[in-house]
Amino acid sequence: MSRVPESVPFPGAPEVPDRIFRGYQQLIYREAGIHLGPAKKALLVGRLSRRLRELGDISLSEYLKRAEEDAAERMKLVEAICTHETHFFREPKHFQWLERELLPRWRAQGATDSGSRSVRVWSAGCSSGEEPFTLAMVLRRHLPPEEGWRIEILATDLSTRVLERARQALWPLDKAREIPTEYLKSFMLKGVGSQEGRMKAGPELRELVRFQRLNLHADDYEVSGRFDLVFCRNVLIYFDAASKQRALERLLSYLGPAGYLFIGHAESLTGLTHRVRLVMPTVYAVRANQ
């Protein structure tokens, strides 16, 4: 999940002229669909200060021109102003519903229909990997491979830097506190030697997850097929209404007819689409007549 966090001015922060700030607003919106409000001036300065120094202490106006002309620099700009906040089993009611309601139903159906034992999941805005690996743990436990279940998880994010971290499937050991004991013991490896103080997802999880860079604001998504579950949580909240609706319609086009869309608890689809019905708070299914 990429988001623009709150920020407060710091001592010595230069003033950003409105004209320059509008240029950054427009560029970031075109590139990522993120609306950078006027209150984010101090954040912009703080997040770009290191890159400006790396480039020889150039000014904000000089850097804006460089980013407008250079696609790679635009990517660095967007990555600089976004932060990635995520946890294992974040918004636990989603995973409780999966464990208690949906997955037992799928497993029962699979017991009589071997053709239904395939599950595809999309974690859109996967950040450093906690969400897709939480999904991998839950699905692997409740839909065991020895019963013929095949699980595929696509994890995407705008940031190439955070995707590289996610691919490593390696986290500080204090992250273990976020994971229920039964899952922690079954699926996580405790680092030793040079990896002491870290934990890593086991190979049975890593083989389930595929990572790919994807911009939800892009005109086309390089994604194929339909998904049974689409998680896009705490991402759309940072888009304006037009960008949010456009991304939502594209996500829904990849959702299978019996699939479910999960959004964050601070988000709402009210007024954005009539194609879905509410299953439980922040969980949606496509309407039967769509």
Automatic annotation (TrEMBL):
<dbReference type="InterPro" id="IPR036804">
    <property type="entry name" value="CheR_N_sf"/>
</dbReference>
<dbReference type="InterPro" id="IPR026024">
    <property type="entry name" value="Chemotaxis_MeTrfase_CheR"/>
</dbReference>
<dbReference type="InterPro" id="IPR050903">
    <property type="entry name" value="Bact_Chemotaxis_MeTrfase"/>
</dbReference>
<protein>
    <recommendedName>
        <fullName>protein-glutamate O-methyltransferase</fullName>
        <ecNumber>2.1.1.80</ecNumber>
    </recommendedName>
</protein>
<dbReference type="InterPro" id="IPR029063">
    <property type="entry name" value="SAM-dependent_MTases_sf"/>
</dbReference>
<keyword id="KW-0808">Transferase</keyword>
<dbReference type="InterPro" id="IPR022642">
    <property type="entry name" value="CheR_C"/>
</dbReference>
<dbReference type="InterPro" id="IPR022641">
    <property type="entry name" value="CheR_N"/>
</dbReference>
<keyword id="KW-0949">S-adenosyl-L-methionine</keyword>
<dbReference type="Pfam" id="PF01739">
    <property type="entry name" value="CheR"/>
</dbReference>
<keyword id="KW-0489">Methyltransferase</keyword>
<dbReference type="Pfam" id="PF03705">
    <property type="entry name" value="CheR_N"/>
</dbReference>
<feature type="domain" description="CheR-type methyltransferase">
    <location>
        <begin position="18"/>
        <end position="289"/>
    </location>
</feature>
<dbReference type="InterPro" id="IPR000780">
    <property type="entry name" value="CheR_MeTrfase"/>
</dbReference>
